[in-house]
């Protein structure tokens, strides 16, 4: 169900849960262990955050430093699918500007559509800890409003590839 419909139809305060994806290498069971005791409160939805990649510098042969991209908390889309399947609860993934090109954003939104997840929270996201200010990805969005415009375009069947014919709109 659309979150906006739940908000409009509510008879009382809605309760929700926000989940931070586990560190890379951890299982979905760690999420279930945390969420299981909270399900008795019948949350209206579960928010799943997204964290952009971070960088570390690894010392290489000859004393050189190599900037290496790491993703410490991947899995937002997969976690949402698991929550919907396991608990029959609406999942609301965070979709962020930072760390994504417009093409990668479109692909994530298509994946969510295929999974039947039709709520998202669009955010600019945080800057990388080593940056003085937020720097968008090449061909990415600098502001959440630009991300919202892309989502709106997909909801109207407008994909980045203008040659896409008979495009099915997202929801």
Q: Which features characterize this protein?
A:
single chain, 171 residues, alpha/beta, two-stranded antiparallel sheet, 6 strands, 30% helix, 18% strand
Q: Can you tell me about this structure?
A:
The chain has helices spanning 3-9, 29-35, 76-87, 102-114, 144-155, and strands at residues 16-19, 45-48, 54-59, 65-70, 90-96, 121-123. It is an alpha/beta fold and 171 residues long. The strands form 2 sheets. Strands 1-2-5-6 form a 4-stranded parallel β-sheet. It has a two-stranded antiparallel sheet with strand order 3-4. Helix 4 links the parallel strand 5 and strand 6. Helix 4 (102-114) crosses helix 5.
Secondary-structure map:
Layout: H1 3-9, E1 16-19, H2 29-35, E2 45-48, E3 54-59, E4 65-70, H3 76-87, E5 90-96, H4 102-114, E6 121-123, H5 144-155
Parallel strand pairs: 1-2, 2-5, 5-6
Antiparallel strand pairs: 3-4
Task: Briefly say what this structure is.
It is built from 5 helices and 6 strands, in the order αβαβββαβαβα.
Number of strands: 6
Q: Which descriptor suits the 3D outline?
A: globular
Cα-atom radius of gyration = 18 Å
Helix tally? 5
User: How much helix, percentage-wise, in residues?
Assistant: 25-40%
Oligomer: single chain
Average pLDDT for all residues = 92
Q: How far apart lie the N and C ends?
A: 11 Å
Largest sheet: 4 strands, parallel
Q: Assess the beta-strand content as a share of residues.
A: 15-25%
Q: Helix/strand-derived class?
A: alpha/beta
Order of strands across the widest beta sheet? 1-2-5-6
The H-and-E topology, N to C, reads as HEHEEEHEHEH
Low-confidence stretches: none
